[in-house]
Amino acid sequence: MNVTVFERSILIARPAGEAYAWHMRPGAFARLQPPWERVELLGVHPGVRDGTRVRVRSRVGPLHFNWEVEHRDCEEGRGFCDMMRSGPFAHWEHRHIFTPIQSGRCRLTDRITYRLPGGAAGRIFAGRFVYAKLDRIFAYRQAVTKADLEMAQADTRPLTVLITGASGLMGRALTPFLETQGHRVLQLVRRPPATATEIFWDPGKGELDARQLEGIDAIVHLAGENIAEGRWTTARRAALRESRLAGTRTLVAALGQMHRRPGVLLSASALGIYGDSGQEIMTEESRSGEGFLAALCRDWEAELSPARMAGMRSVALRMGLVLTPAGGALAKMLPAFRAGVGGRLGSGCQWLGWIAMDDLLGAVHHVLHNPECDGPVNVVAPGAVTNADFTTTLGRVLRRPVMLPVPALALRALFGDMADEALLASTRAVPAQLQRSGYAFRFPELEPALRHVLGKAGPA
Q1: DSSP codes joined into one string, 45-106
Q2: 107-127: per-residue pLDDT in tens?
Q3: Which domain holds residue 132?
Q4: Are residues 186 and 175 in contact, defined by beta-carbon separation less than 8 angstroms?
Q5: Which of 4, 10, 215, 458 stands the most exposed, by the fewest C-beta atoms within 10 Å?
Q6: Do 354 and 283 belong to one domain?
Q7: 399-419 per-position pLDDT tens digit
Q8: Residue 299: how many CA atoms within 13 Å on its side-chain side?
Q9: How many domains does the chain contain in total?
């Protein structure tokens, strides 16, 4: 039949039954998709049961492929199989195998038996490419599965969590992460709700029915327009303030009308609150800075005051640069760096606070369950770097030269005040609250984090 067998295994310090159950939860499909891949679920995932089918669309370069996969041979605690019914391969069978081993551990094995289309010609021209692509994808998937399962705590109770901004970059990652951790996730939406997990609100008009929030245990508030989407014109500044302040105000007002309020409210903020602080090490107790971005963050966080005064634990997540190729700043950098024309911004001496997406999600989960995390929390990795160090490391991971610095004058001409406050400002922040409360970073250093999110494991 000229089939190829790909197999990769990993040891997980959790019982096989737990690993199997993790894969059965809503969100598992989305959680396992590498951020550099472009895979779209067509319709609603029906769950993993014998006979259920999933339809997806994937993209390789300019080409799009539709898949239909049927779940088979589901054996609780042991494994299941995904069999391609239609798609780009002549044959595709993916077996997920969970093997119990001593001391409450298990071995997860992904075994894929496939046959490329085109016979011998397909094997000659695409064989090595496909095998290497599978190895890259499943190295990522298994690392995520292991880390997510091993972070779970037996005494952590399932929560009902409401998310605003769920369609944004962080929200799209947070929803499946929380679902695979066993939580129920609801979302605030600005259109007519399409499912039972959606609740309508109109933050611009202050509309949110507090009665629909009853029974919610926690809220993660992420809604707000992208700060780096364009020049900060007068109109743009007003829109940025309105999207953050009005949304937070609407949410907090609704919470004030509830009979039983959620136990905790997490609201997005940014390291921009510290302004340009040079070489100074900034903790959550440090002063706020100057400029539009610092004032915006300061006013944004101030909107949490009524919730805090009402007795709710209220946390401002002061986030750094989030590392993911799925969107945001890193995604915008990648084309230039892959072309070999990336470089430092300005002098490159400015400090940059960053965090891998998996640590951002892990930090949110940690804060949700740790009452000692209150007030502002710096959501950054402990290994802060300068802009020059960041660009050098990114070039090394991509195996590309870093030769063309972007002068500060050019940045100011392109972006105006945003260049000085968001691109050239120096913020050397440390995650004091997270470290003090015992959060264990998956990626405390930059290079392993970049290799993980870009699928570039191993030495350069």
Answers
A1: ---S-TT-EEEEEEEETTEEEEEEEEEEEEETTTEEEEEEEESSSSEEEEEEEEEEETTTEE
A2: 999 999 999 998 888 888 889
A3: 4-151
A4: no
A5: 458
A6: yes
A7: 999 988 999 988 888 888 888
A8: 17
A9: 2
